[in-house]
Amino acid sequence: MCGIVGYVGSVRERSDAGDLDGEYCALDVVIEGLRRLEYRGYDSAGVAVVADGTVQSRKKAGKLANLIAELEEHPLPSTLTGIGHTRWATHGGPTDANAHPHLADEGRLAVIHNGIIENYAELKQELLAKGVKFASETDTEVAAALIGDLYRGAADGDITKAMQLAAQRLEGAFTLLAVHAEQPGVVVAARRNSPLVVGLGDGENFLGSDVSGFIDHTRRAVELGQDQIVTITPDSFAITDFYGRPAQGKEFEVSWDAASAEKGGFPSFMEKEIHDQPAAVHDTLLGRSDPRGRLILDELRIDPAELKQVNKIIVLACGTAAYAGMVAKYAIENWCRIPTEVELAHEFRYRDPIVDKNTLVVSISQSGETMDTLMAVRYAREQGAKTVSICNTNGSTIPRESDAVLYTHAGPEIAVASTKAFLAQITAAYLLGLYLAQLRGNIFSGQIKDVLADLNKIPEKIQTVLDTTGPLRELARSMKDEKSVLFLGRNVGYPVALEGALKLKEIAYLHAEGFAAGELKHGPIALIDAGQPVFVVVPSPRGRDSLHSKVVSNIQEVRARGARTLVIAEEGDEAVREYAEHVVYVPETPPLLMPLLTTVPLQIFAAELAAAKGFDVDQPRNLAKSVTVE
Ligand code: M6R
């Protein structure tokens, strides 16, 4: 959940010299990296540099801006070795004392950490018995003290060796970075169950929780494996396992640049990412079918014979990604006739799920680092299931540990509230469903071609929705003092209702609930009182059975009890007009694909309302972009 940056360089003159002290230095690189990684956590931030045989650090509770103000008041020397951290608190509240870096070895060693050290209490007792004193409540300080103790002892003054020995003793999930006053020009890191990428420069090297930590400087990166240690100097990087045996990383080129991670003129990353959605869907479809309308998913490297044997699919994910999974269930069952369950990854892992070699587990994760999802995927693999990951982040852990991956091409998603990743996940899930149907011969090739043609029209239709949001934004602003908003939907509209409610909770801190519209009469209708706003996602009148008329009845039911009905419906659906205080029309599209359009107004509604309340839309309180703890 935290953001981590490390840097070692060898030259001071560069055209992109930073502005902290007028001279290019480690601090510039580290602060810039933290700015890009702040979405991972923003409870506190801190930096440490190695200068003139000392380690010097500054840290501050609150957002990165507080640390920058502190650095202006109490500057650090300009040097070429540094580390930086932005925190999402786990052990100990968000205070200055608990902020990272944590120091050890009498202030000569600085350590930053992402993750949770599960055996920290036991290690702390051991270190206390040796006379070590602690200044914070964190597990990180215990890790720092352990590394410091080993540095002076068994590692004999070798920071890489000290990190290896410490990593052997630590349990849980961690990315740890350390610098030592006696070893300028060296940053050492350890990784277990927590993300870390190396950036390769020319006479300088970088470490980051993800590539955005150094994307301003290089697009050449190395992905580390599980349980590895890496030591970077300005001209080298060396990878070992925790026992010092040489190991390999995987080099790759980052396909996006720094500009893709900028706001591009929008007031927030969330607004920008909502507007990126036509491209996100388009890019996710790109190159995945041939002109005859056949799916080509080369990257899905599971033997087709094995895929034909699949008799159950389990979709595992959390939060918004789980709602994408719910949409996937409707599509996969419809096209492939394979029973499909969707389960929150953290619930799946800790019961006794029935999984075997004929089960296909599909995980969905934007970051590819969500610990709950990762643990569930590992468990499913242990039980013999085949695992496919739908993921937006190249080189992240979940795809690496899955049998196959279908990348979404949404580009970097920075805002904590997921938007474009959601639409890209749904798109990828449709592709997977169609591919399985093609492979197993469940539907005619002509039908697949038709669905692909409809999918290819979606980006333009999303753009139409985006171009006509004026009245919706006005409505959102007028509702900034509401205390509660309800969302109803049926079939694929149900996960859309859940997602609409989640967006509002997340960024506007407003009570919001999503319900299956048919469930209303079984209890939730008691919530309806005069003036209660209710969003209703109405299925297409061209859809199957009586779904449309059932939802129109639901609108009437809540309206009869005084609700303000706010309706999302398909263009031309005049039947809803007389029961709706406000209607947002989206272009006609096949019912199964509707979530790609009906979600968009709900995202805009939440973003506009939260902004009207004066909240930080990109960094909502208590949350972090990437949830790398269980
Ligand atoms: O990175 P992931 O897709 O695995 O993240 C899963 C959830 O934590 C995430 O979707 C979360 O619910 C979002 N903040 C929702 O906007």
Protein described:
Helices cover 35% and strands 23% of the residues. Helix 7 (277-285) runs parallel beside helix 13 and helix 14 runs parallel beside helix 18 (595-612). The protein starts with a strand and ends in an 18-residue tail after the last helix. The longest helix is centred in the C-terminal third of the chain and has 22 residues, at 445-466. It folds into three domains: 3-255, Glutamine Phosphoribosylpyrophosphate, subunit 1, domain 1, CATH 3.60.20.10; 269-456, Glucose-6-phosphate isomerase like protein, domain 1 (Rossmann fold, 3-Layer(aba) Sandwich); 467-630, Rossmann fold (3-Layer(aba) Sandwich), CATH 3.40.50.10490. With 630 residues, the protein is α/β, with parallel strands linked by helices. A hairpin with a 6-residue loop joins strand 7 and strand 8. The protein binds 5-amino-5-deoxy-1-O-phosphono-D-mannitol. 5-amino-5-deoxy-1-O-phosphono-D-mannitol is lined by residues 318-321, 365-367, 370, 373, 416-418, 502, 506, 626-627. 5-amino-5-deoxy-1-O-phosphono-D-mannitol (M6R) is lined by residues 318-321, 365-367, 370, 373, 416-418, 502, 506, 626-627.
Unreliable stretches, pLDDT < 50, 5 or more residues? 17-22
CATH class of the largest domain: Alpha Beta
Overall pLDDT, averaged? 92
Distance between the termini: 11 Å
The gyration radius over C-alpha positions equals 26 Å
Overall CATH architecture of the largest domain: 4-Layer Sandwich
How many structural domains in the coordinates? 3
Largest sheet: 8 strands, antiparallel
Keywords: Aminotransferase, Cytoplasm, Glutamine amidotransferase, Repeat, Transferase
Protein name: Glutamine--fructose-6-phosphate aminotransferase [isomerizing]
Main location: cytoplasm
Subunit structure: Homodimer.
